[in-house]
Design a protein that fits this description.
Length: about 120
């Protein structure tokens, strides 16, 4: 037998209403039994450490750092006057790149503030 569309809709609606009512009753029963929750004893959490007890805030600061010797390419300008130019008081913009060895030296750089966490 084939049910009419109207009958199928009524059956589906009743099933949905029953599921909603049953779910609401089940949720109410679940909250009622969960209300008197037992307290956690301190012995069960004695092995647990809070993250805050091992993390400290390090403020931002300047720090010295050793920079080893290295080669740098630097612009060497020619500080000659071009006497053939009408404006002889201007210096020439001519120059060239030159490789220069920079010996090792101490330099300072900024270290941003950060959290420092250690395992205990």
């Amino acid at each position: 037998m084939t049910l009419s569309v109207r009958a199928r809709r009524m059956v589906a609606g009743a099933a949905t209403a029953g599921l909603l009512a049953g779910g609401g009753a089940l949720a109410a029963a679940g909250t009622a039994t969960a209300a008197p929750a037992p307290t956690v004893s301190s012995a069960s959490v004695s092995g647990h450490h809070d993250h805050n007890d091992r993390c400290t805030w390090k403020k931002g600061h300047w720090e010295k750092k050793w920079v080893k010797g290295h080669w740098e390419k630097r612009w060497q300008s020619d500080h000659r006057h071009d006497h053939k130019d009408k404006h002889s008081h201007h210096t020439s913009h001519k120059g060239h790149w030159k490789n220069v060895y920079v010996p090792g030296h101490w330099d300072t750089h900024w270290v941003k503030g950060h959290w420092s966490c250690h395992h205990k």
